[in-house]
Amino acid sequence: KPNFPDLQKIGVILFFLISGFLITYTTLRKANNEWYTFKEYYIERFSRIYIVYVPVLILIVFLDFYLFIYLAEPNVHNSYNALTFIYNLLMLQDAHSIIGGYTSFGTARILWTLAMFWWIYMLFGWLILGSRTVNKYFLYILILILFLFITILIGMGIR
């Protein structure tokens, strides 16, 4: 077998790079306007991601229920619970065990990528726009550290 990375890993990396370039370009372009703050950035990211993410999570609830109940698939049961669903809804899936260590919900193992993307987006947006959003430098640094901490925990939890 040749020593070649899995194609899905290459796909995730390419998506991450393209997404990063596009987010950076649009954010820096919009940052020229004083009205563009972290609040607007957050609303844009939230509406683009969560409008698809929440229905997908709900679909997984029903599909995995079918797998677990009717097909007796044992691997679904461990991550098919309300707390794991909430962690996924908050984009905290696969975070380090310090904050629970809950995995991706049900059979949707690939959702770990969304958590990583989400927190990197939040960290980047806050770095660029956070100082416009809050008047206190201390609060800016505190929220920056929080976003960085969560991003690191997600990264440490990925297996």
TrEMBL record:
Please name the GO terms that the record assigns under molecular function. Answer: acyltransferase activity, transferring groups other than amino-acyl groups
InterPro entries hit by this protein: Acyl_transf_3_dom (IPR002656), Acyltransferase_3 (IPR050879)
KW Transmembrane helix (keyword) present:
yes
Alphabetical list of Pfam families matching this protein: Acyl_transf_3
One GO CC term, this protein: membrane
Q: Is the Membrane keyword given for this protein?
A: yes
Domain Acyltransferase, which positions?
9-154
One GO BP annotation of this record: polysaccharide biosynthetic process
Q: Where are the transmembrane segments?
A: 12-28, 49-72, 110-131, 137-158
Q: Which UniProt keywords apply?
A: Membrane, Transmembrane, Transmembrane helix
Identify this protein by name: Acyltransferase 3 domain-containing protein
Taxonomic source organism: marine sediment metagenome
Its organism's taxonomic lineage begins at:
unclassified sequences, metagenomes, ecological metagenomes
